[in-house]
Amino acid sequence: MKKVSLLEWAAVVLTITAFVFFLDRSVLSKETVNLRPQEPKPPFPYYQENVSFENPGARIKLAGTLTLPAREGKFPAVVLISGSGQQNRDEEILGHKPFLVIADYLTRHGIAVLRFDDRGTHQSQGNFATATSEDFSTDAESAVAYLKTRKEINALQIGLAGHSEGGIVAPMVTARSGDVAFMILLAAPAVQLDTLLLLQQVTLYRILKFPEAEIQRSRKILAGALAIVKSSTHPATLRSKLTSYIRANPDSLSVFAAPHMTMEQAQNLTINLLATPWSRYLLTYNPLPALEKSTCPILALNGEKDYQVPPRENLAGIATATQKSGNKNVKLVQLAGLNHLFQECKTGSSDEYQRITQTFSPAALKEMSDWIIQIAR
Question: 202 in the Ramachandran plot: left (φ > 0), alpha (ψ -120 to 50) or beta?
C-alpha cells in the first residue's frame, strides 16, 4: 500500500486530525497550480547537477539535485529532508515546490543544497511503502556522507534541514553522527506523536468551528484507535482490532469525512493508514531523546498559525530537550502569520494551502540563510 502523506490525513477524523488532509488532486485547476510566483526559472546564477548516491545499508541508490553557488569553491552545505508522504526532491505538494524555492534562495546566498527524492519515489530506488522514519534517517545520513566526497563542499560545515516528519528524522541523524555541523527544524514535532495527533485534532476542528461536543467525542474515539495501534505488535491482529473498533463507531466519521468519500471509503482509508509499520513507528516514537543527544547548533522555526505542529507545545519541547542536554547554541523562532507550510495565511487551515500563491515565506528563508551563514563563519 502506498503511504499517504501527513498532509493527506486530516479528512478522516480517526486518524487524521491536523497532520494532514485528504485531497482529490482533480480539484486543482491549472491556473491555481501555475500561479506560484516564487518558483525560480532558468537561467540560474549558480551551478546545479543531478546526482545519485548510495545508502549501503539499505542497498539502494537515491537521486537528487545538488546546487552550488559556483562550480569552483568550498561551500557550507545543507541536506533537505522532506515531510511525510511520498515526496520528490522538491517536496512538491498542491502545486507548490518548497524545497526548490529553499534551495534556490540558499544557493543564491552562498550555501550549497542537496535535495533528493524519497526512496521509491521518482528516480530513487527502494520500497517506500514499508519504510519508517528510521529508514529515512539512514537515507539522510547517506546524503551527508555523499556531500563529504565532494571537493566543493566544506566537510566541516554540512547541516540538515528537516520539515515536519523531516524534523523528526534530522535529530535521529545528528544524535548518532558527528558529521552534522548544524540542524534546522522546520515545524518539527517535539512531543510524543500520539499526543500531538490528539492536540492537532482539537486545534483543527476548532479552527473549522465544529461543535465542541463533537470535537470531544471524536477526540475520545481517536484516542481509542491510537491506543490499539500502540498496543498491537502483530500486523494481522492490529488490522483486525482496528477494523472492529472503527466499524463500531461509524458515525464518528460522518461529520468530518471529505465530501467525495463514502462512509466505507473513509473507514477503509482510516484502517489502511493506521495499520502500517510507518504509522505504528511514529505513534510509538518519542522525539525528545534524539533531540537531547543532538549537540550541534539548532535553529527551530514554527509558524504562529501552524495547527499541524502547534508552535507553543513543540518549541517548548525542543527547548526542554536541548536544555537537558546543555546545548546552548539553540535558536527558537515563532514566525507571525505563517502556517505549517510556512506560507503567509489567514487561518492556518489546510484548505488555504493550495489557494495561497506564496510557496515559502521570505522571512523564513532569511532566517534560515542568515543563521547558516553565521554558523558557518
Answer: alpha
In this prediction, residue 206 carries a pLDDT of: 84
- Calculate the dihedral angle through the C-alpha atoms of 268, 270, 276, 282, rounding to the nearest 10 degrees: 180
Q: What residues of the chain score a pLDDT lower than 50? A: 1-31, 254-256
Whether residue 321 contacts residue 191, with contact meaning beta carbons closer than 8 Å, is answered with no
Q: Work out the angle at residue 306's Cα, subtended by the Cα atoms of residues 369 and 64, and round it to the nearest 5 degrees.
A: 45
CA–CA dist 281, 193 (Å, integer): 10
List, in sequence order, the alpha helices (H) in 208-328: 212-231, 235-247, 263-274, 277-283, 288-292, 311-325
Domain parsing of the chain, residue ranges: 6-27+213-283, 37-191+287-375
pTM for this one? 0.89
Q: Which of 14, 120, 27, 15 is nearest to 6 (CA)?
A: 15
* Cα distance between residue 130 and residue 139, in whole Å: 14
Fold designation for 37-191+287-375: Rossmann fold (3.40.50)
Judge contact between 19 and 7, C-beta under 8 A: yes
pLDDT of residue 244: 92
Q: Beta-carbon neighbour count of residue 293 at 10 Å?
A: 15
Asked if residue 322 lies in contact with residue 292, where contact means CB atoms within 8 angstroms, the answer is yes
CB atoms within 10 A of CB 285: 19
In our burial notation (b when 16+ CB lie closer than 10 A, e otherwise), range 98-129 reads: bbbbbbbbbbeebbbbbbbbbbbbeebbbebe
What is the distance of C-alpha 253 from the center of its chain?
A: 25
| The C-alpha cell that represents 306 in the structure block | 501552524
Query: Can you tell me whether residue 153 is helix, strand or coil?
Result: strand
Grid-cell match 461543535, residue found: 211
pLDDT at residue 262, as a whole number:
77
